[in-house]
UniProtKB/TrEMBL annotation:
<keyword id="KW-0472">Membrane</keyword>
<keyword id="KW-0150">Chloroplast</keyword>
<dbReference type="GO" id="GO:0016120">
    <property type="term" value="P:carotene biosynthetic process"/>
</dbReference>
<dbReference type="GO" id="GO:0016117">
    <property type="term" value="P:carotenoid biosynthetic process"/>
</dbReference>
<dbReference type="GO" id="GO:0009509">
    <property type="term" value="C:chromoplast"/>
</dbReference>
<dbReference type="InterPro" id="IPR014102">
    <property type="entry name" value="Phytoene_desaturase"/>
</dbReference>
<dbReference type="GO" id="GO:0009534">
    <property type="term" value="C:chloroplast thylakoid"/>
</dbReference>
<comment type="similarity">
    <text>Belongs to the carotenoid/retinoid oxidoreductase family.</text>
</comment>
<dbReference type="Pfam" id="PF01593">
    <property type="entry name" value="Amino_oxidase"/>
</dbReference>
<comment type="subunit">
    <text>Homotetramer.</text>
</comment>
<dbReference type="GO" id="GO:0016166">
    <property type="term" value="F:phytoene dehydrogenase activity"/>
</dbReference>
<keyword id="KW-0125">Carotenoid biosynthesis</keyword>
<protein>
    <recommendedName>
        <fullName>Phytoene dehydrogenase</fullName>
        <ecNumber>1.3.5.5</ecNumber>
    </recommendedName>
</protein>
<keyword id="KW-0560">Oxidoreductase</keyword>
<keyword id="KW-0934">Plastid</keyword>
<dbReference type="InterPro" id="IPR002937">
    <property type="entry name" value="Amino_oxidase"/>
</dbReference>
<comment type="pathway">
    <text>Carotenoid biosynthesis; lycopene biosynthesis.</text>
</comment>
Length: 569
């Protein structure tokens, strides 16, 4: 998701025509035999250069970091992190080969290194981050694969920032959710969470105080509809996986206008799809986190581009403990031993990489492309067929002026074509500009638009922005002028959380000895999100640490067999 998760960029040809654009093992969407790294040089109407008048002074005001350390989920995440640092040092560290340097792969490598092992992290492209990757254009401006928001309800991500000593790189915003009002162009409706109240009272107060989006009868009917979830807890939430949001609302007698006013925007923010497709479990998990934790729905922006501001500190930590990270190392094939276990990863440059254990931390669509034939009928892997990445488009537009009708915050557009957006010249220190706005917008659902031209997408975006900024933006650019833009397409982003997907999500330990999975699609309670990716990496690392004796013995056995074979020849 954009609000709850992440996207990644792909615009790559695949020789078998599986998709118009496929991607890499490290974290866009797909990977195969004849890929190339995209340049993402979008057409421009006019370019600008950064001002040379002097350094920019940041004037946006951020909120102090909330107190997260005493929450149950934060302490649970901290305990899991500590278990790797306190684990007995291995007599012979395992060499663990990890494909994919997105958050799942980086997390796996980080915690394996903490446990005393030697990860080798392979990234297909020349940029870190996978679904949080970003690129710098010729003007020195960054454009990203998605609009990434860090929630207070992300305990493992928040622990990761603390462990790396980079808590100050999160720019926390006021505790609000801000929705555009389509019926009143240019106006917004806010849900403000008072800091003086504990959860869930602060969330209830925010909902009750907002009378612009829902009427009192609608609020009451929605609250009654939610009662089973409040009473039934996690068991009830998981049981709703078989229903779409729209189906659940109808079953609970919740007025259709509640879905139209709130849950279309929320569904698109969570998983880039509409309520008639999204599993209700996804919504209930989000609501549970937001309502059960005082600061759960409080949002923060990263203070700059993700590869440098988040990914590189993880890489530096991995290398400081003896691990390795290699870019431009694309997996071509998973080679097997006679017994069906992994022999090596064959790279597209012709080299092979061997290890004591192997982790595939790329998106599920890539895994399915590279899955060895002998594995395809194994139920564990067969169930992956239902997990498919959802298309999404991320749009960046630089304007010739500072737009006024916006906030230093994430905004829910509630438009037919757009999900969420932000004026990054306000919300992010590295992108700050006192004179010009840069809007970053998520274009979703994108299935019907992913093959359209960039200019078509920009034209459609401008028509939507005309409604959000009626006094400042006109579709014909008679008001604010576009200086330049970048359009980043992802044909396969996070997995599409449709009903009945939950049983198909795999555990991190596969039935193949020595082969593991990491990624937000794997089994963990935060679904398709940055938090889910980080937690999956911790679970993957935990499985490998638990399997140390087995993996070490297997490595010694294979070495002996190789020695005997070499001697007899």
């Amino acid at each position: 998701m954009v609000v709850f998760g992440n996207v990644s960029a792909a615009n790559l040809p695949y020789q078998n025509g599986f998709l118009e654009a496929l991607s890499s093992s490290g974290g866009i969407e797909l990977m195969g035999h004849s890929f190339r790294v995209p340049t993402f040089q979008a057409p421009k109407t006019r370019t600008r250069r950064r001002s040379t008048a002097g350094p920019l002074q940041v004037v946006c005001v951020d909120i102090p970091r909330p107190e997260l350390e005493n929450t149950v989920n934060f302490l649970e995440a901290a305990s899991l992190s500590a278990s790797f640092r306190s684990a007995p040092r291995p007599a012979k560290p395992l060499k663990v080969v990890i494909a994919g340097a997105g958050l799942a792969g980086l997390s796996t490598a980080k915690y394996l290194a903490d446990a005393g092992h030697k990860p080798l992290l392979l990234e297909a492209r020349d940029v870190l981050g996978g679904k949080i990757a970003a690129w710098k254009d010729e003007d020195g401006d960054w454009y990203e694969t998605g609009l990434h928001i860090f929630f207070g309800a992300y305990p493992n991500v928040q622990n990761l920032f603390g462990e790396l000593g980079i808590n100050d790189r999160l720019q926390w915003k006021e505790h609000s959710m801000i929705f555009a009002m389509p019926s009143k162009p240019g106006e917004f409706s806010r849900f403000d969470f008072p800091d003086v109240l504990p959860a869930p009272l602060n969330g209830i107060w925010a909902i009750l105080r907002n009378n612009e989006m829902l009427t009192w009868p609608e609020k009451i009917k929605f609250a009654i509809g939610l009662l089973p979830a409040m009473v039934g807890g996690q068991a009830y939430v998981e049981a709703q996986d078989g229903l779409s949001v729209k189906e659940w609302m109808e079953k609970q007698g919740v007025p259709e206008r509640v879905t139209d006013e709130v849950f279309i925007a929320m569904s698109k923010a969570l998983n880039f799809i509409n309520p008639d497709e999204l599993s209700m479990q996804c919504i209930l998990i989000a609501l549970n986190r937001f309502l059960q934790e005082k600061h759960g729905s409080k949002m923060a922006f990263l203070d700059g581009n993700p590869p440098e501001r988040l990914c590189m500190p993880i890489v530096d930590h991995i290398r400081s403990l003896g691990g390795e990270v290699q870019l431009n190392s694309r997996i071509k094939k998973i080679e097997l031993n006679n017994d069906g276990t992994v022999k090596s990863f064959l790279l597209t440059n012709g080299s092979t990489v061997e290890g004591d254990a192997y982790v595939f931390a790329a998106p599920v669509d890539i895994l399915k492309l590279l899955l060895p034939d002998p594995w395809k009928e194994i139920p564990y892997f067969k169930k992956l067929d239902k997990l498919v990445g959802v298309p999404v488009i991320n749009v960046h537009i630089w304007f010739d002026r500072k737009l006024k009708n916006t906030y230093d915050h994430l905004l829910f557009s509630r438009s037919n074509l757009l999900s969420v957006y932000a004026d990054m010249s306000l919300t992010c220190k590295e992108y700050y500009d006192p004179n010009r706005s840069m809007l970053e917008l998520v274009f979703a659902p994108a299935e019907e638009w992913i093959s359209r031209t960039d200019s078509d997408i920009i034209d459609a975006t401008m028509k939507e922005l005309e409604k959000l900024f009626p006094d400042e933006i006109s579709a014909d650019q008679s008001k604010a002028k576009i200086l330049k833009y970048h359009v980043v397409k992802t044909p396969r982003s996070v997995y599409k959380t449709i009903p009945n997907c939950e049983p198909c999500r795999p555990l991190q330990r596969s039935p193949i000895e020595g082969f593991y999975l990491a990624g937000d699609y794997t089994k963990q309670k935060y679904l398709a999100s940055m938090e889910g990716a980080v937690l999956s990496g911790k679970f993957c690392s935990q499985s490998i640490v638990q399997d140390y004796e087995l993996l070490a013995a297997s490595g010694s056995r294979k070495l002996s067999e190789a020695t005997v074979s070499s001697s007899s020849s």
